[in-house]
Amino acid sequence: MSQKPISRRQAALRHAVLILASIVMIYPLLWMVMSSFKPDNLIFSDPMALPEALNWDNYVNGWNALAVSFTTFYRNSFIIAILAVIGNVLACSLTAFAFARLEFRGRKIWFALMMGTLMLPYHVTLVPQYVLFQNLGWVNTFLPLIVPKFMAVDAFFIFLMVQFFRGIPREIDEAAVMDGCGPWRIYWRIMLPLSTPVLATAAIFSFIWTYDDFLGPLIYLNRMQDYTVPLALRAFIDSSGGESLFGQMFAMSTLSLVPVFIVFLAFQKLLIRGVAMGALKR
Amino acid sequence: MTEAVTTKGGQHPLPAAGTLSPFRRALARNAPGYLFLLPWLLGFFLLTLGPAMASLYLSFTRYDLLTPPVWVGLDNYEFAFTRDRRLRNALDVTFTYVLWSVPLKLAVALALAMVLDKSVRGVSFYRATFYLPSLLGASVAIAVLWRQIFGADGLVNTLLLLTIGWQGPSWVTHPNYALTTLIVLAIWQFGSPMIIFLAGLRQIPQDLYEAASMDGAGPWRQFVRITLPLLAPVVFFNLVFQTIEAFKAFTPAYVVSGGQGGPIDSTLFYSLYLYIEAFANLRMGYASALAWILLVIIGFFTAIAFATSKYWVYYEDEGR
Predict the structure, then answer these.
(1) Which residues of B touch A105 (CB under 8 A)?
(2) Half-sphere exposure of B164 toward its Cβ, with a 13 Å CA cutoff?
(3) Least CB-packed of A129, A254, B29, B93 within 10 Å?
(4) Do the beta carbons of residue A145 and residue A153 sit within 8 Å?
């Protein structure tokens, strides 16, 4: 990539910098994983040491350390995250299809408004949305965390999909119109199958963002049996307080990162391209 | 006409193609678009525009959720601007956080993107490694981890004791350092702006560097004269986006400080203060005013970035 082939010494230097940076980036995570296998008294007395053996006690005890077991928390988290993914992908792609392919009066204005919502900080709608959901009796249910996704509130995904749909040659859907396809069939049978990369990107990011979301569950879920995994981890800090449960806390924290880590390993390319696309395809 | 009269029940006869009334034609042309847009339109009015207007109204009221809102005029804003010491502190904390974390994060991101752009072997491995913290960073687990790493007997202090023999304080519970640990946490997540920088660097034509190097320009001059100007749109995007994100930060401050913004409000981020006012103190009207003040602050910074961008952002396809 450089202007001239870089010398061997320079290349070695670059790799040294990169390796050092990698260690700084990854070591905190490794430390957490290592600590999760140690008994509590060794975590801080000898923090650099490797665990003596793969001791799963912290995982077993941590799983049931709170009044409700982590089975419930994971079930809650996955129910919310999966429904949010479905809602986001469906609603955002419908919206994006309208903006990218259909002619209707006011399209430009709606599109501008949609882009405007990208800039709106969530704080502005936080209180009235809470009042609304409270009046609907939705507090302490998953609905406030799921239903909005079916109304395409995450404008970022709409934007991403509009960009992608515009890149699909118009000849394809014009041919379909000739064959008598209506907009619905074009959307369902042509656009969606051709758009799997952007749909997958949207699905992956909405999974991770919903799974990690803290503020939403914090506001709407007050009973422990409804807690998501992040809320349960927070409860860990509150309830342990003292010095006795660090190992279990690390074990449950490590475990909570596993789903995101798996998604990362499986879809690295899509994720990285998704991040780059958000910026460059304007 | 006669047909229409004879039809019972107000039903129109099916008109032949081309004789549709203008209204019907408009309907037929616009209906599919609006049908597809329906979920978003519902969300826009019910969950975005409506609540935003309601929030503006509530910001002029006193509202505790249990009794109806009471109109108080500009009292909330007056209190916020003149008497609310805690708000002033929250602004201090948030601005400090934004002004340190965003430039440092972007500097690290750009530096490593440039190193990565030049070295061929193992790029995708390093890129993935650097990106991982950005992806995991938003989770509560990482905030929990950070609390321990910077705790009294945490990893950082152990390393300090081993290397320079100095016993550090408990960083997260010390009012002078707690915010610093959160800034470090933000910098640690430089991965996603780095990926965006990297993608931008890849679009700079290599012959520019070759020509510059022929003319005897050293690496620094190449960086200042070629890389930075051509990368300016990407820098701009990252700057605006990261600034907005930093203003909105909530989870790390909440978890690291145990939900209170402590020690002595030293990590009381704006978002955290707003949350506490709304949901702990049930001052929903005041919290709404805080939300609108934040909107103006974020809007102000975005506007500055956009207004000045024509002086420092160079788009290659500008001449189109």
Answers:
(1) 26, 29-30
(2) 6
(3) B29
(4) no
- Nearest-by-CA chain B residue for A241: B258
Question: CA-CA-CA-CA torsion for B74, B75, B76, B80, nearest 10 degrees?
Answer: 100
Please report the pLDDT score of residue B313 as a whole number. 64
Distance CA A120, CA B51 (A): 12
A200-236 in b/e form (b: 16+ CB < 10 A) is ebbbbbbbbbbbbbbbbbbbbbeeeebbbbbbbbbbb
Burial of B17 (0-12, 13-18, 19+ CB in 10 A): exposed
User: For A264, which of B132, B199, B241 is closest by C-beta distance?
Assistant: B132
Q: Check whether B7 has a pLDDT greater than 50.
A: no
What one-character-per-residue DSSP string does A54-82 give?
--THHHHHHHTSSSS-HHHHHHHHHHHHH
The matching CATH number, chosen from 3.40.50.2300, 3.10.290.10, 1.10.3720.10, 3.40.50.720, for B75-312 is: 1.10.3720.10
Q: Is the peptide bond before A259 cis (omega within 30 degrees of 0)?
A: no
Taking an 8 Å cut-off on Cβ atoms, the answer to whether A234 and B138 are in contact is no
Task: Return phi, psi of residue B191, to 5°.
Answer: -60, -45
Tell which of A18, A111, A122, A123 to mutate to test the B interface (max B CBs under 10 Å). Answer: A123
Q: Where are the domains of chain B?
A: 23-58, 75-312
Sign of the alpha-carbon dihedral angle for A178, A183, A185, A189:
positive
Q: For chain A (length 282 residues), average pLDDT per consecutive 10?
A: 60 84 88 84 71 81 86 95 95 94 90 88 91 93 95 90 88 85 88 90 91 93 93 78 71 91 88 72 42
Which pair of structure tokens corresponds to residue A124? 């502005």
What HEC string does B194-206 produce?
Answer: HHHHHHHHHCCCH
d(CA B123, CA B117): 8
B24 vs A88, residue with greater confidence: A88
- Quick one: how many helices (H) and strands (E) in chain B? 16, 2
Residues B242-284: pLDDT tens digits? 888 888 888 888 887 777 777 788 888 999 999 999 999 999 9
- Which one has a higher pLDDT value, B85 or A74? A74
**Which pair of structure tokens corresponds to residue A254?**
């490590």
> How far, in Å, CA of A175 to CA of B120, rounded?
44
Q: Write down the ipTM of this complex.
A: 0.86
Q: Nearest CA of chain B to the CA of A212: how many Å?
A: 5
Chain-wide mean pLDDT for chain B?
Answer: 83
In DSSP notation, B252-319 reads HHHHHTTTTT-STTTT--HHHHHHIIIIIS--HHHHHHHHHHHHHHHHHHHHHHHHHHHHH---TTTT
Query: How confident is the model at residue A244, as a pLDDT?
Result: 60
Architecture of the domain delimited by A66-280: Orthogonal Bundle (1.10)
What are the start and end residues of each CATH 1.10.3720.10 domain in chain A?
66-280
